[in-house]
Write a structure and sequence with these properties.
Radius of gyration: 35 Å
Helix content: 25-40%
Number of helices: 20
Strand content: 15-25%
Number of strands: 25
């Protein structure tokens, strides 16, 4: 059997000689062509009769290299065989180098770093990413990157001490849906933002934009890093990360998680997120201790800057949790409202809704009990609970369909809408609208809060946010008047008008009017009441007027003038919601619906 050259080239090695036995696949000759080596193997069991080439000889394609006489397969222990080829030493060494290099960044190779996390009761960046992503789904980008400090530190030291330049990032699936996941690594230079990890973020942000992938960011860290000696430029203010990340607002869901310290640039990215989840003991601030001291503003311990109770009460943190494990659980739940449509559901007794509001119109009740009774069991996630106590904003499901719920809280200022409550509601409306979640308003308000104190807090501007955002909603929304529906505040809880929602109904306890009944009577009948000299008689007449006003303002009466679509049995509420929202699906779109989701 003649063995011919498969291509033109130069013989650089001859692996056999005349009389050698060969097996199929065994190299006979090596030919180099265009800087690549091409092995010419035997195709049969046989014995080399003759070899027609020598090392250094140039051959043409098809030229005879050797002649092999075909034989039966040789017995492995008696026939003389040419030595079988061994795997390329260069290839096996290279693969070993790759594996060894990757292993330097793993937790197993960094026991001291892991021990430091254990000492603070925290997990490593890689542990958090592994817990968040479905098993085996995470593909890391840039794991071999090191800090841009080669001018001041040996490369071996950088590989060992600054793996991934302090940012573990890549793409994985969460609940079966693809997402970009990134975590600053506080064990690497305090989780600071370095030149290379900025470039890595830019890459992942652009990927998220192109493929419409949500992002989960573990944001713990100390902000910008001043020690990167290899980075070109002076200020670094031309980095793209903040512009790219901010541009994703309203395009894809952005989830921020904090455990520990989060200052400066890390906090700026965190503040761009749609939702912020923070663990006990976290501190969040736009400036850390060094920046504060450098500004001549005093010396502070990190724990004194933006502690969790402060950031919950002021609305920075949406959900406070005990630890990182719970934070990951909440992040998964949050994303599920935006990543999946209908889910299996069950519901026990809609008739239970009939008893959640007291018949006594002056008796307070817990609005969260109403929400839990209305939604599918175990389907709710409340956001910003510690802020804007007069308004409750909750993600939930009704008959398996995700939606947002905005409810007045009658236990705070009687449900009156103050600046914080208005801001909270307006921002939640933007969030739901940006990602195609229908909205349910549960109205029980005497109106907007009034008085000199609240006007000092810019009440006029804050409450008007509910009107301008409500008027721009593109998702279907509906309103249920649970009890009080008075004045401009009630209109704000219906997108600006009782005729704006897909439905506006009331429960039997509902009452509506241009303003609260007591205030309307005092203003409208001031002269008549002041003319009554006896205080007891004046109070009796006042109560009678209020009662008559209540009868006139009952939802049943208002519905007869078609100011409401209906007054319903509370047990029918879920049917109304499903009728309005159940068959709706958002139209396809190529760009954002809203320029952004307001960071506040």
């Amino acid at each position: 059997m003649v063995v011919a050259a498969p291509l033109q080239g130069t013989v650089v090695a001859v692996a056999v000689g005349p009389g050698d036995r060969v097996r199929p696949g065994q190299d006979l000759v090596i030919i180099e062509s265009m800087k690549l080596e091409h092995a010419v193997p035997a195709a049969v069991n046989g014995v080399v009769r003759s070899l027609e080439v020598v090392v250094g000889q140039t051959v043409d394609a098809g030229e005879e290299l050797a002649v092999v006489d075909v034989t039966a397969a040789p017995a492995p222990d008696r026939d003389r065989l040419a030595s079988p080829p061994t795997p390329s030493a260069g290839e096996s060494t290279a693969l070993a180098d790759v594996r060894a290099r990757h292993s330097l960044g793993l937790d197993e190779a960094r026991p001291d770093a892991v021990a430091r996390r254990r000492a603070t009761g925290q997990r490593t960046a890689r542990e958090n990413v592994a817990d968040l992503c479905d098993a085996g789904s995470f593909v890391e980008y840039g794991p071999l990157v090191v800090a841009a400090q080669r001018r001041r530190r040996p490369n071996e030291d950088l590989m060992r001490v600054t793996p991934a330049d302090g940012l573990v990032g890549g793409v994985g699936t969460i609940g079966g849906h693809r997402a970009v996941v990134m975590s600053y690594d506080y064990t690497v230079l305090a989780g600071t933002q370095g030149y290379q990890n900025h470039r890595k973020k830019d890459r992942l942000f652009e990927l998220a934009e192109r493929q419409r992938l949500p992002i989960v960011l573990f944001a713990e860290g100390g902000g910008g890093r001043p020690g990167d000696s290899d980075a070109p430029g002076v200020s670094g203010l031309d980095c793209l990360a903040f512009a790219l990340f901010g541009g994703l607002s309203g395009l894809v869901p952005l989830v921020g998680i904090v455990s520990g310290y989060c200052f400066a640039g890390n906090a700026a990215l965190l503040g761009c997120c749609d939702v912020i989840i923070a663990t006990e003991g976290s501190n969040i601030g736009m400036g850390g201790p060094a920046m504060i001291e450098g500004g001549g503003l005093g010396v502070y311990e990190p724990k004194a800057i933006g502690p969790l109770p402060v950031q919950v009460a002021n609305g920075v943190v949406d959900v406070a949790v005990a630890d990182e494990a719970e934070a990951v659980t909440i992040a998964k739940r949050y994303l599920s409202y935006f990543q999946s449509g209908h889910q299996p559901w069950s519901y026990d007794d809609p008739a239970a809704l009939r008893s959640v509001i007291p018949d006594n119109r002056l008796r307070a009740y817990d609005i969260r009990v109403v929400i839990e009774a209305l939604a599918d069991p175990a389907s709710t996630l409340e956001l910003r609970r510690g802020f804007g106590a007069g308004m409750v904003t909750t993600l939930a499901r009704v008959e398996g369909r995700p939606l947002g719920i905005i409810a007045n809280n009658p236990t705070h200022l009687g449900g009156a809408i103050d600046p914080e409550a208005a801001d909270k509601a307006a921002r939640f409306m933007q969030l739901c609208d940006a990602f195609d979640l229908p909205i349910l308003f549960l109205c029980d308000t005497p109106g907007f809060m009034v008085g000199p104190d609240v006007e000092e807090a810019a009440q006029v501007r804050h409450v008007s946010r509910m009107f301008v955002v409500g008027a721009s909603l593109t998702v279907p929304f509906g309103t249920i008047v649970l009890r009080k529906g008075y004045g401009l505040g009630a209109q704000a809880m219906a997108g600006g008008s009782f005729k704006s929602p897909a439905f506006c109904v009331a429960w039997p306890t509902g009452e509506v009017g241009g303003m609260g009944l007591e205030g309307a009577v005092r203003l409208g009948f001031r002269r008549e009441l002041e003319a009554i000299g006896d205080p007891d008689e004046r109070e009796r007449v006042f109560n009678e007027m209020v009662e008559r006003a209540y009868v006139n303002g009952r939802a049943l009466n208002a519905a007869s003038y078609y100011e409401l679509d209906d007054v319903i049995d509370p047990a029918e509420s879920r049917r109304w919601i499903s009728a309005a929202f159940g068959s709706w699906s958002p139209p396809p779109r190529a760009t954002k619906k809203r320029p952004c989701v307001d960071a506040w």
